[in-house]
Design goal:
Residues 64-361 form the Aconitase/3-isopropylmalate dehydratase large subunit alpha/beta/alpha domain. The chain is α/β, with parallel strands linked by helices. The protein is built from 24 helices and 25 strands.
Length: 664
């Protein structure tokens, strides 16, 4: 009674709507409305088997298990004595993977281990005491061994930690757990082109492509590692929640590898991009940074790198040789074409395993029976010879990961970057747009915006894409100066052209992989952007027909802004990745979902039809609407406006327009 509402502080809860997808919603200070009931619980118990590295298995295990359970749009709370065995950074990793298993939030209530972590990272003792007493007073502080403290949950799902084994995930999805990468890759070679297969003819499974790099001869094969990255997301973790055990483990592995006389192929793109300066600090202080550097893992920056395609060009044989080469990274995205358009196989692993596969130079290796490589004396070295023990890692962590380190780094945050501090920032209230800039451009989202609400109308046709080079060359830039889509995300003209630019995009109109589509009125095959432009010039609205989990692989806001700019008015899919569905709503694009049992195939839809979506009055959440075709066929689908707030955004033409009208 004394606490009508509770503000949760210092609890490990990850809400990806704020971090990944709904940046538009957060920046507009709009409410986050959720459906109820939505609390789903996973019970963890027993102990991890000896020898497993938590982050080697947590990454694929949690998405796989929770996707099977079905937690899309739910709150997931972890409880029971098994949680107490997880370090605070392990819990942060699992919570941080919310987008991978589709939950709205993943919650680990605070306990004594949480307090220990905050003490270790230099938090104020008086404030910690206040927070702890407050959370206990409102029953949010948990003793995981005391079952009487467990709330009543709507659902309980059990995960036995003793069943967890060392594993990775891939080659095309973070939720596709694989116990043996060698077996996974070999099986995928022959499978039909799709979510797991590469459809390589059996006689080409052992193809070899020789090439020169820095005047030396090398050869590439199917499964050759060409990208090895330890990025900031999940395994090195975001901002302050870096996981010292896996990072120090990677550093100690590098140290042992160098001392054993091992090296890496120079053509492999290696990078280390921590989520926090603290990581760099303890890697240097512990003496392992030099060994990482010798293997090629130098700090290239902080924040998003490899996971958003910032690896740059690869050796020519990779592009021209038609090989299924591999990327290995400790991030949380392995969707085909996202890491790099030319690495068809991408596996997620812990940082130590990233280094191991980089040294091996291939994912087609059995570390149990095959040497990782020959050293500089021609002697075979096995992974077990250089793998650091848990005791070695813990000893280094206790010595070098101390509160003073965190305090020093945090105190320097506003002072350490001289270039940033010397920037001459304008004081104007309104941003001054530079018409010559290709990086930041005034977006067209508000063109034609009126103060009055316009009644949403109906819809009609097909598909969309890009011509990236034409725009930039027209601006006087040479191709080598284009940079990446990620770096140009402040330019809507570039991002619209890059929206469906993935060369692995499979379009049923073409029945092959290509970032192109069929312009139906002319029957011409065009880049998607060019086709969309033609449709818009002719005044035709557009739709997308899709399958299951549409939007998986990119929960960023531009994955919805781009289609909006291309003139897409609706998407019709079997199901949606939750964050992307929310972003479509935020841009005023209608997410339509087939009714249970219906698919494009079962309804006989080819995409060549003309579609009219009839909007009833008044619109209500999750209303079923009629879709009429120009073939005189009619079927029904559900509009995925799940709340009244989402309907308000739609009536305003999206959350951006809603924010403008609200503040004018």
């Amino acid at each position: 009674p004394e606490a009508p509402h509770v503000v949760v502080t210092h609890c490990l809860v990850d809400i990806p709507s704020a971090k990944y997808g709904n940046s538009m919603q957060v920046s507009s200070q709009s409410p986050r409305q959720a459906q109820l009931p939505m609390q789903t619980v996973l019970l963890s118990r027993n102990r991890y088997p000896m020898g497993t590295r938590t982050l080697s298995h947590a990454l694929p295990l949690c998405p796989q298990h929770l996707r099977q359970v079905g937690v899309v749009g739910k709150f997931v709370e972890f409880f029971s004595p098994g949680v107490a065995q997880l370090s605070i950074t392990d819990r942060a990793t699992i919570a941080n993977m919310c987008p991978e298993y589709g939950a709205t939030a993943a919650f680990f209530p605070m306990d004594h281990i949480s307090v220990q972590y905050l003490e270790q990272t230099g938090r104020d003792a008086e404030k910690l005491d206040y927070v702890t007493r407050y959370l206990k007073a409102v029953a949010l502080f948990r003793d995981y061994s005391n079952s009487s403290q467990d709330p009543d949950f709507t659902q309980v799902h059990k995960l036995d930690l003793s069943t967890v084994v060392l594993c990775c995930s891939g080659p095309k999805g973070p939720h596709d757990r694989v116990a043996r990468v060698l077996t996974s890759f070999s099986n995928s070679m022959s499978l039909q082109q799709g979510f797991k297969g590469f459809q390589v003819a059996r006689e080409r499974h052992h193809a070899e492509v020789p090439f020169q790099y820095n005047d030396k001869e090398y050869s590439l094969f199917h499964g050759s590692v060409v990208i090895a990255a330890i990025p900031s997301c999940t395994n090195t973790s975001c901002t302050n929640t870096s996981n010292p055990s896996v990072m120090l483990g990677a550093g100690l592995l590098a140290k042992k590898a160098i001392k054993a006389g091992l090296s890496m192929k120079p053509y492999i793109k290696t990078s280390l991009s921590p989520g926090s300066g603290v990581v760099t600090y303890y890697l240097k202080e512990s003496g392992v940074m030099d060994y990482l550097f010798q293997l090629g893992f130098e700090v290239v920056g902080y924040g998003c790198m490899t996971c958003i395609g910032n690896s740059g060009p690869l050796p020519e044989p990779v592009v021209e040789g038609d090989l299924v080469v591999a990327g290995i990274l400790s991030g949380n995205r392995s969707f085909e074409g996202r890491v790099h358009p030319n690495t068809q196989a991408n596996y997620l692993a812990s940082p130590p395993l990233v280094i191991a596969y980089a040294i091996a130079g291939t994912v087609r290796i059995d570390f149990d029976t095959e040497p990782i490589a020959l050293n500089n004396k021609g002697k075979a070295v096995f992974l077990r010879d250089i793998w650091p023990t848990r005791q070695e890692i813990q000893a280094v962590e206790r010595q070098f990961v101390i509160p003073a380190m965190f305090k020093e780094v945090y105190e320097k945050i506003e002072k350490v970057n001289e270039r940033w501090n010397t920037l001459n920032a304008p004081s104007d209230k309104l941003y001054t747009w530079d018409p010559n800039s290709t990086y930041i451009k005034s977006p067209s989202f508000f063109d034609g915006l009126t103060r009055e609400l316009l009644t949403p109308g109906s819809i009609t046709d097909a598909y969309v894409l890009l011509n990236f080079a034409r725009y930039l060359t027209g601006r006087g830039l040479n191709p080598r100066d284009f940079n990446s889509n990620g770096s140009l995300r402040g330019n809507d003209a570039v991002m619209a052209r890059g929206t469906f630019a993935n060369i692995r995009l499979f379009n049923k109109f073409l029945n092959r992989q290509a970032p192109r589509t069929l312009h139906l009125p002319s029957d011409e095959t065009l880049d998607v952007f060019d086709a969309a432009e033609r449709y818009q010039q002719a005044g035709f609205p557009l739709m997308i027909l899709a399958g299951k989990e549409y939007g998986s692989g990119s929960s960023r806001d531009w994955a919805a802004k781009g289609p909006f700019l291309l003139g897409i008015k609706a998407v019709l899919a079997e199901s949606y990745e939750r964050i992307h569905c929310s972003n479509l709503v935020g841009m005023g694009v209608i997410p339509l979902e087939y009714l249970a049992g219906d698919t494009a195939d079962s309804l006989g839809l080819t995409g060549r039809e003309r579609y009219t979506v009839v909007l009833p009055e008044p619109l209500t959440p999750r209303v079923i609407v009629d879709i009429k075709l120009d073939t005189d066929k009619t079927f029904q689908a559900r509009m995925r406006f799940d709340t009244d707030v989402e309907l308000t955004y739609f009536h305003n033409g999206g959350i951006l327009n809603f924010t403008i009208r609200k503040n004018v």
